[in-house]
Specification:
By secondary structure, the protein is α/β, with parallel strands linked by helices. 33% of the residues lie in helices and 28% in strands. The strands form four sheets. Strands 1, 2, 7, 8, 9, 10, 16 and 17 form an eight-stranded mixed sheet that branches. α1 runs parallel beside α9 and α13 packs antiparallel against α14. The chain starts with a strand and ends with a helix. Bound molecules: flavin-adenine dinucleotide. Flavin-adenine dinucleotide binds next to α1, β2, β3, β11 and β14.
Length: 431
Amino acid sequence: MAEEKFTAIIVGAGPAGSTAAYMLAKEGLDVLLIERGVAPGSKNMFGGRMYSHALNCIIPNFWEEAPVERPVAREIITFLNGEKSVSLNCQDVSWARPPYHSFTLLRAEFDAWLASKAEEAGAILACGIREDDPLMENGRVVGIRAGEDEMLADVVIAADGVNSILAQKAGLSKMFTAHQVATGVKEIIELSPETISRRFQVEGNNGAVQLFVGDCTKGLQGGGFLYTNKNSVSLGLVISAGALQRNQIKMSEVVEEFKENPHIAPLIEGGQVAEYSAHMVPEAGLGMLPQLFGDGMLVVGDAAGFVLNLGYIIRGMDFAIASGAAAARTVLDAKSRNDFSRQGLSKYREFLKENFVLRDLEAYRTAPQFMENKRLFNEYPKLVTDLVKKLFTVDGTPPVHLLAKVFGQIKEDQISLLQLAMDSWKGAKNL
Ligand SMILES: Cc1cc2nc3c(=O)[nH]c(=O)nc-3n(C[C@H](O)[C@H](O)[C@H](O)COP(=O)(O)OP(=O)(O)OC[C@H]3O[C@@H](n4cnc5c(N)ncnc54)[C@H](O)[C@@H]3O)c2cc1C
């Protein structure tokens, strides 16, 4: 039996759903935010860093009240190759001052806080409730069914994450293929704040982010990550689900090897594993976008595939927040005309372009294809580490000038010069 009618029902209290709920409730609309977990964030995981810009537009100076871990002041990219590694290390301490470029955070606390902002603004938050089906009437979404309960709404926002069942059942999306998603696993490893600051050479509560490429994924498309929290580090891997499947490799084995890697083990030495989690990451960019809106429905965040992975930058949280905000704007606009039809909600695409989500995905339209190049995860990390090692080696052999060293190493590693030139060109163009 349908009991109540809301202006908007939002399914999923992740960053996308809670942002939409917050913005709509602030404008006085009747909003129901439902979450299948016992609390927002209880089922959620990510690597560990959120770029601040999107949330700062919605809740200025959010860091003064949000449960963030460390502002990131140092970025490290490490190429791994057996006993060798080469790191590119970039530090800017101004990143760790307002308006803070990015923060590490833990989702259980952060998502609960963001959902509480929506609640404070007037949204009804219902946890421990799983949406089972969209309610459809003449091909349009008019509400949702959760167990025995039916709830009606002018518009339903699918914020239920990657592989959104809601958007699929409403006919707006298809299940993502293994080729379009990656598998992510993460361990939270507890270490003292002093140990973390010392090991990652950061001052006070400043944080560091370290990404790894090469051996850590057994040469498969993907990489490793380490994010410093206050009292722990988030360590994990993201590997193409298709590549894992094709190569019959188990993620659990790769993770154990990663932790034992001679370049990783000292970073986590003495730490206690407090948590293990796994989740899928949408990776195909624009190539996997569903229909973003339909009659009575909008799709936001991971449910819409809004994630950008350039290898050295992973963005999903800021896209989720900004798409939740764009959905809220769309609902307010539709409400002013009382038109929640597909046509009435079509401004969503425009708002997504205005606030960077579609603009950035379009700018990096070809990046996902470029990232499928196996040489990026195999030959090139090997080449970089072999070459840099040679630069630093003094062993009594006749001297070789830099240019000859570079060409010599390329030849020794059996890399085609033409291929390398083409890949460099494509990398510079696509990333
Ligand atoms: C391993 C990994 C590393 C990542 N690293 C980063 C990073 O460092 N930086 C970054 O910006 N992004 C990162 N991402 C991506 C980022 O986590 C996502 O883009 C972001 O969480 C998307 O937010 P969302 O609100 O759309 O979806 P989610 O965070 O997935 O939230 C969806 C919510 O919907 C709920 N839900 C699902 N189905 C139902 C249902 N039927 N009924 C009720 N509730 C439901 C879920 O419980 C959940 O709370 C990473 C992702 C992974 C997996």
